[in-house]
Design goal:
The protein is about 50% helix and about 10% strand. By secondary structure, the protein is of the alpha/beta class. The strands form 2 sheets. The chain has a 5-stranded parallel sheet, sandwiched between helices. Strands 1-7 form a two-stranded antiparallel ribbon. The longest helix is centred in the middle third of the chain and has 16 residues, at about 75-90. The two termini are about 35 Å apart.
């Protein structure tokens, strides 16, 4: 009988408890640089909260039937940013979910205001070296198609930091933290916002 009648820690995962105890009242919008982990952490976060995960870039790609790089090349960045704002607005007005946005989305004042008014923004803050290690071998980043992609990343990083710093919540990223650990840190931060995460 010893121990058999009591479930172990492994049979009572925190995820189940969170799903039972918390309800997402507003969409959580992950912002930050390319390579910050918005998609990976967002997917884990949505799973832990028991809600849908959405990616604004994927929604744009689906609607345009072209890759982000192709949209940039054919239609230019202003066209892409306009579609991005439309998609973010539509998703924010839908059922509360976890939404990952492209690195440049939060630079728009209109996007920042809409996200603040309707959802909650979470900046996944990572240092430049970590970002570079994550994106250096990717060929899907149109903004890094330059003669010196690391320098381009540094310039983007320095230019965008002041905008990301306006996010409602900041969660520090680190190379040693797993995706699930990062998602748990976001949830901990959200517990300070009862208007977002209802317990």
């Amino acid at each position: 009988m010893r121990g058999k009648e009591f479930p172990s820690a492994n049979t009572c995962p925190k995820v189940t408890k969170r799903r039972a105890m918390s309800r997402l009242a507003k969409t959580v919008v992950l912002v930050g640089m390319m390579g910050a982990g918005k998609t990976a952490v967002g997917t884990a976060l949505a799973r832990q909260l028991g809600v849908e995960f959405k990616d604004s870039d994927e929604e744009i790609v689906r609607a345009a039937d072209r890759t982000i790089a192709e949209i940039f090349e054919r239609d230019g960045e202003p066209f892409f940013r306009a579609r991005e704002s439309e998609v973010i607005g539509r998703l924010l007005r839908g059922t509360p979910c976890v939404l990952s946005t492209g690195g440049g989305a939060f630079l728009s004042e209109a996007n920042r205001k809409l996200i603040h008014d309707v959802g909650v923004s979470v900046w996944l803050k990572a240092d430049l070296e970590l970002l570079w290690q994550r994106v250096r071998h990717k060929t899907t980043r149109p903004l890094l198609r330059t003669p010196n992609p690391r320098e381009t990343l540094r310039e983007l990083y320095e230019r965008r930091q002041p905008f990301y710093a306006q996010a409602d919540i900041t969660v520090e990223s680190a190379a040693e933290r797993s995706v699930d650990e990062m998602a748990s840190r976001v949830i901990e931060a959200l517990h300070g916002r009862p208007d977002v995460l209802e317990v």
